[in-house]
């Protein structure tokens, strides 16, 4: 659903170790190809504690800006914020996904994302 965005910007929190398990690297790679083909930019925040491999780095070619949340923030769910929708994927332990379509909720989640983005560090920075 998220690659149907009209705004051409996705705000995303990725729990990398969970995404590797479900939906898996092949699905995520296919998603990345389609997102880039459609010209959709992505801002991604990840937790260093949940990063597993050096995959999906910052990339202008892949329309991806990346930051790492402060070490005190453990972002264990994947969240995508776009237009008036917020998609959330739980851990494999809890095993659910949902999309909420609400202008107010999406605005709140964008605001929270942008606040975390401001205090997050670009790749290569090791400070909190």
Task: Give a quick precis of the structure.
This protein is an alpha/beta fold and 128 residues long.
What does this structure look like?
With 128 residues, this protein is of the alpha/beta class. It contains two helices and six strands, in the order E-H-E-E-E-E-E-H. Strands 3-2-1-4-5-6 form a six-stranded mixed beta sheet, sandwiched between helices.
Write down the Rg: 14 Å
Number of helices: 2
> Helical residue percent?
25-40%
First-residue to last-residue Cα separation: 33 Å
Mean of pLDDT: 88
Task: Please supply descriptive tags for the structure shown above.
128 residues, alpha/beta, 30% helix
Protein topology:
Layout: E1 9-14, H1 16-37, E2 41-46, E3 64-68, E4 78-82, E5 85-89, E6 97-101, H2 103-119
Parallel strand pairs: 1-2, 2-3
Antiparallel strand pairs: 1-4, 4-5, 5-6
């Amino acid at each position: 659903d998220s690659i149907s965005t009209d705004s051409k910007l996705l705000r995303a929190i990725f729990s990398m170790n969970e995404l590797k398990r479900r939906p898996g690297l092949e699905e995520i790679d296919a998603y990345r190809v389609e997102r880039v083909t459609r010209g959709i930019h992505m801002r991604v925040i990840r937790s260093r504690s949940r990063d597993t491999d050096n995959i999906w780095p910052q990339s202008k070619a892949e329309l991806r800006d990346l930051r790492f949340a402060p070490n005190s923030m453990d972002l264990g769910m994947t969240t995508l914020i776009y237009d008036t929708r917020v998609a959330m994927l739980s851990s494999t332990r809890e095993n659910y996904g949902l999309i909420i379509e609400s202008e107010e909720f999406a605005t709140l989640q964008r605001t929270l994302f942008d606040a975390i983005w401001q205090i997050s560090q670009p790749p290569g920075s090791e400070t909190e």
